[in-house]
Amino acid sequence: MSLTTVKEALEIVVNNSQNFGIEKVDFLNSCGRILKENIFADRDFPPFDRVSMDGIAISSEAFNNGQRKFNIEGIQAAGSAQLTLQNTSNCMEAMTGAVLPKNTDAVIQYELLTIENGTATINLDALKSFQNIHLKGTDKKQGDLLIKENTLISPAEIGVFATVGKSTVKVAKQPKVIIVSTGNELVEVGEIPADHQIRRSNVFTMVSLLEKLHIKADTLHILDDREVLLTKIESLLNNYDVLVFSGAVSKGKFDFIPEVLNELGVEKLFHEVKQRPGKPFWFGRKVYTERSRSETTIFALPGNPVSTFVNCIKYFNPWYCKSVGLNFENKQQAILSEDFYFKPELTYFLQVKLSQVEGKLMATPISGKGSGDLANLVEADAFLELPDNRSNFTKGEVFPVIIYRQ
Amino acid sequence: MSLTTVKEALEIVVNNSQNFGIEKVDFLNSCGRILKENIFADRDFPPFDRVSMDGIAISSEAFNNGQRKFNIEGIQAAGSAQLTLQNTSNCMEAMTGAVLPKNTDAVIQYELLTIENGTATINLDALKSFQNIHLKGTDKKQGDLLIKENTLISPAEIGVFATVGKSTVKVAKQPKVIIVSTGNELVEVGEIPADHQIRRSNVFTMVSLLEKLHIKADTLHILDDREVLLTKIESLLNNYDVLVFSGAVSKGKFDFIPEVLNELGVEKLFHEVKQRPGKPFWFGRKVYTERSRSETTIFALPGNPVSTFVNCIKYFNPWYCKSVGLNFENKQQAILSEDFYFKPELTYFLQVKLSQVEGKLMATPISGKGSGDLANLVEADAFLELPDNRSNFTKGEVFPVIIYRQ
Which residues pair with B363 in a beta bridge? Predict the structure, then answer.
């Protein structure tokens, strides 16, 4: 039987994205979410001819006729309604952010002025056209599209929402996710494990990985008992958009997850991917006809920590992006900094430390002693994705990279 | 008067970092925080000779003597105490994650077995030493340092905390920050501005930028009134580690912030930096002798949106990193993708769109019509930092880059 390749697996995962709908949130809580409406300019920007330096506003005609001394008629402050310069051989002090006073068309900054007894003398030979004025509508016109639907919201977008008065915005709803550990060898973090036991850790790593996507996942532990798994998973299928399992998907006597999912009517889309680590990955979907929840997607990941980790960011993240409409394709690549050898005909996710040299992203392998070595994850920053069709990888070659630490 | 250069300004800012102390938090809430203790292995990893494939555990001596058929004595499951193989010409089924049974030293995966009537036949010519066994302590020894103090905690670290039973961890306390807008031209996001008014936006952009550092900042708006500013800022100095102002730091008639801060005993460390945008940046500090709060740092940023934005990430972020002990130096660089000209002798923070080509980070300028054009921020990803000592920047040259969108 030929295994599913990494490319095929990713395609199947992404082609089985879900739609979680749309919700409105306060704009200030929208950072990290996916925008689900277009944002337009509600007025011109700037909305008026805006003074862009502190100084005096004058009529350029007077200046160009040779006048250099101007009596100050008043002050145009930011936040005040537009004043009118009554006599165009006078000037008006004008502050950054203020409306340009009527009958003026140039602003001379204080640095070029001498002000004495209410008269400003300009130390300047020639004016630029509309000097120090940011003209109405220069940046954007009312009705212009400022931010497109399906944008990942960052602080820059938050500022634009505020500027155009979008106090609430439409964003993609988040999936309801539960992360389930299995395995009788696991004890809680606060417990002292017996010699043959270890602590639960994968679910927490995954909770944190999903937090980066602003998804708040639930967690659960189920013992390796076929009947208990059947009952509990049936209930989870009814209540969640996504089930993520860690463990019990390989060939062991107590690896009940695949058969239990099958018995519960979940369609297997693939099991086992031509990769290391993370090969026993099982992926499936249940589609309902008569329910409010139309489908549930199942990521059943192998239980060792690095397998879980790499599969979560390699598959879950793109699936999520596609589901919420984010046009995401990981095009990041890095340059291998030393020769590397890996024999099996599997895509190898090599743990690497990244560094940047003159704009080039270099990837240095971290030597691991097994895919289960979580401690290596804290020494590395990323996985370099080495293709499955050869064994020798040469210093200087460029490969796709999945970065998990910025 | 020679202006403070960007390099000098950054040095002054970073040399005036604060110490906010240490607190304990639940490990699952520590992602994005700075670790303030070393994390050690509480036991060997793996903690026992661990089976790493599902199959049968045998004595290699029997195999090496030519034996290929082994009667199955029992099953060693993950999570069960170690069993003993009673007869070394028998085998024990053994599951991934289980303790290796006593009297065995090799595991043969199911893929290489034929099992019939309780007897496993091995289809294999030669064993590797400790085949499919992850030996106790191979990854880490009890007492090994796993994570160093002052690490930025990511999902990989969360997994390690869980593994070694650190249900609470010591992290750097966050500063108490308030972001204050000034300017009579500002109205709230939910309001319709009059012709001469605009909506408040900078404070919200900054709240979001600080959220990325896991800092929850308060916000306030104060009108451009000298007496009101005096009273309110005095109270803020007593209650916050950091005050961030947006606006009122330039040469305008109502730019009261510098003089008010001076009157309140805040030491000015610099005012105006040789850069565009963001030149009128004012930075200072108040040190107390008889208070519980020992000092307050003041970032008074110019009020236009892009100035505020660039100064926040160029100066506040490194100041924060230094304060919490994170060994952070922005060494990221990008390659200019087209010629660029900028005449003034100022460091220019050029808004750029980033793309990655074969591991190289390319920066393409976004043409802006003024530093106040917030809408450009949503089209760009980063600022390329062009030095102040020349005007011509050539395609292919490498410059430092500050990335604000991942």
Answer: B336, B354
- A8 min Cα distance to partner chain B (Å): 23
Average pLDDT over residues B213-219: 97
Q: Is the pLDDT of residue B371 over 70?
A: no
3-state secondary structure of B90: strand
Contact status of A226 with chain B (Cβ, < 8 Å): no
Contact list in A for residue B156 (CB cut-off 8 A) is 205, 309, 374, 377-378, 380, 404-405
Query: Which band of pLDDT confidence, cut at 50, 70 and 90, is reported for residue A368?
Result: low
Cβ-proximal residues to B396 (8 Å cutoff; 6+ apart), any chain: B335, B336
CATH assignment of the domain containing A86: 2.170.190.11
How does residue A330 score in pLDDT terms, banded at 50, 70 and 90? Answer: confident
HEC string of A255-324?
A: CCHHHHHHHCCCEEEEECECEECCCCCEEEEEECCCCCCCEEEEEEECCCHHHHHHHHHHHHHHHHHHHH
**Number of domains within chain B:** 4
A253 in contact with chain B, both atoms CB, cutoff 8 A: yes
Q: Do B203 and B64 lie in a common domain?
A: no
Check whether residue A156 and residue A248 sit in a common domain. Answer: no
Distance from CA of B209 to the nearest CA of A (A): 6
* pLDDT tens digit sequence for B116-148: 999 999 999 999 999 999 999 988 999 999 999
Split at pLDDT 50, 70, 90, the class of A372 is low
Q: What tokens were used for B200? A: 């408040």
Instruction: Work out the percent of chain A whose per-residue pLDDT is above 90.
Output: 88
Q: Which residues from B are below 8 Å from A183, CB to CB? A: 78-79, 97
Q: Are residues A227 and A195 in the same domain?
A: yes
Domain that holds residue A168: 25-42+141-172
Mean per-residue pLDDT of chain A = 94
C-alpha B328 chain-centroid distance? 10
Measured CA angle at A196 (ends A190, A201), to 5 deg: 40
A145-155 per-position pLDDT tens digit: 999 999 999 99
pLDDT tens-digit map of A58-96: 999 999 999 999 999 999 999 999 999 999 999 999 999
Cα A115 from chain centre: 52
Which of residues 179 through 198 in chain A touch B, CB cutoff 8 A?
A: 183-186, 189-198
| Separation between Cα atoms, residue A341 and residue B73, nearest integer Å | 39
| Integer CA distances (angstroms), B2 to A21, A75, B270, in order | 57, 30, 12
| DSSP-derived secondary structure letter, B313 | I
C-alpha closest to that of A154 among B378, B40, B316: B378
Decide if B129 touches A, using CB distance below 8 A.
no
Same domain, yes or no: A283 and A356:
no
Residue A328 confidence (pLDDT): 73
The model's confidence at residue A251, banded by pLDDT at 50, 70 and 90, is confident
DSSP structure class, residue A175: P
Residues B159 and B32 grouped into a single domain: yes
DSSP state of A112: G
Cα-Cα-Cα-Cα dihedral sign, residues B107, B110, B111, B115: positive
The answer to whether position B361 is within a domain reads: yes
Do A130 and A91 share a domain, yes or no? yes
